[in-house]
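Researcher: I'd like a structural prediction for the single chain below. Treat it as a standalone chain; there are no partners to consider.
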Amino acid sequence: MTTLTRIGNSQGVRIPKPIIAQVQLEGAQIEFEVTSDGLLLRPVRTPERSKWAEEIDVQLANHTLVNDPARLQEWLDEPMEEWEW
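Model: Treating it as a single chain, here is the predicted structure.
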């Protein structure tokens, strides 16, 4: 249990470290949802592939993958079982 703490003109909640670890909030952006029972906090989760286009552009601009066939093959051989389709 915790209480609201004054932070300037706002108020905040201190979340105990074990709870932060348990729900994987360490360093995460948090989104809020007002529910009929109160307030729900959850980490913002971005799909793993959300930044692929930017990463490919960087790799192509640096010619990293093109100039290193082993790295290109490693990148292409990444297991697809964990991908979200």
